[in-house]
Amino acid sequence: MIGNSWRSDVQGANNLGIASIGFNQQSLPSGEGSPPSIEVSSLRQIPEALVALGSR
């Protein structure tokens, strides 16, 4: 799951056991709860993040 909403996207994916990529373009503090599997601040980082998740 790739998303920019901490509560809906990241926590939702984590609750289901799905890897999550948090898109945090403004480098805002993370919400409460478990962190995303990977956090990116640019759309250009997403392909690299997907490769990193695939190698886990």
- Strand arrangement, major sheet: 1-2-3
Q: What is the count of structural domains?
A: 1
Seen as an oligomer or otherwise, the chain set is single chain
Give the termini distance in whole angstroms: 15 Å
- If helices are DSSP runs of H or I spanning 4 or more residues, what is the number of helices? 2
**Overall spatial form:** globular
Mean pLDDT: 91
Encode the helix/strand succession as letters: EHEEH
How would a textbook summarize the main sheet? 3 strands, parallel
Helix content: 25-40%
- Derived from helix and strand composition plus strand pairing, the structural class reads alpha/beta
Uncertain spans: none
Report the sheet-strand fraction. 5-15%
Could you characterize what this model shows?
The protein is an alpha/beta fold and 56 residues long. It has one domain. Helices cover 36% and strands 14% of the residues. It has helices spanning 6-16, 46-54; strands spanning 2-3, 21-23, 38-40. Helix 1 links the parallel strand 1 and strand 2 (21-23).
Secondary-structure map with pairings?
Blueprint: E1 2-3, H1 6-16, E2 21-23, E3 38-40, H2 46-54
Parallel strand pairs: 1-2, 2-3
In short, what is this structure?
The protein has 56 residues and is α/β, with parallel strands linked by helices. The chain is built from 2 helices and 3 strands. Strand 1 (2-3), helix 1 (6-16) and strand 2 (21-23) form a beta-alpha-beta unit.
Output the keywords:
single chain; three-stranded parallel beta sheet; 56 residues; 2 helices; alpha/beta
